[in-house]
Amino acid sequence: MTIPKITLNNGVEMPQMGFGVFQVPDLTEAKQAVADALQTGYRMIDTAASYQNEEAVGQAIKESGIPREEIFVTSKLWVSDFTYERAKKGIDASLEKLGLDYLDLYLLHQPYGDTYGAWQALTEAYRAGKIRAIGVSNFYPDQLKNLELMSSVKPVMNQIEINPWYQEEPAVAFAKGESIAVTAWAPFAEGKGDLFNNATLKEIGAKYNKSVGQVVLRWLLQRGIVVIPKSVHQNRMAENLDVFDFTLSDADMAMIRALDTGVSQFFDHRDPVTIEQIFGSSLNQLR
Fold first, then answer.
1. Which of 51, 106, 126, 166 is catalytic?
2. N or C: more exposed end of the chain, with fewer CB within 10 A?
3. Is 102 part of the annotated catalytic residue set?
């Protein structure tokens, strides 16, 4: 099985499916999960400073025996490091914890605070070869455009919440129009809205002898979106990878499109209360 790749706007290739480690702060569990994912066939790992498991990710990569250049590693800078000077230290801290000489992709985790100072630090690290590609997470289209206009290096990626209940079609279309790739976090909405028992998704899955989770991942892949499903169970990791042998029809895609509520299943990144919580959280595992 070969996982397809996308080409980012700076020419770097990235697997379209990877393995996420959000909400796995226990280092032993995180290390085992990443080791299992790599053994299962994943070659892209998505972590963040705020997940507090970069060390475990790095250890699993080191002990895997897989050549470094074959594994695409993404991490993210938290808002507590969103100044120019702190961001420089934050980048080095991620590299040190991961035990890596370079990161394949590094993102600004939230669109708050001194994003421009932090972005300048990412830009310098990119030009110095510490990071192969730089991008953002949770940016709305206007925030993304503003950063573009203020920067000499265009973001390659925007990682945002996308799932059947919150499909973000305008945001995805905008990013694609700017040649910026999109990654979906929480593709299964963490099961909210009883997603895994949804009649429409089950009906579609039955046509292809696939699970609801596999249908959701296939739907995202066919939209050209990068996916990073998370599981600590190796059988589920394998199931999530088994989505490249079928194609959803236009009718299937339309049925899923009709499920969109246009409402985040977690929180509104423009809500002042949410912004205050994120700023006060330090490293607290908020998306």
1. 51
2. N
3. no
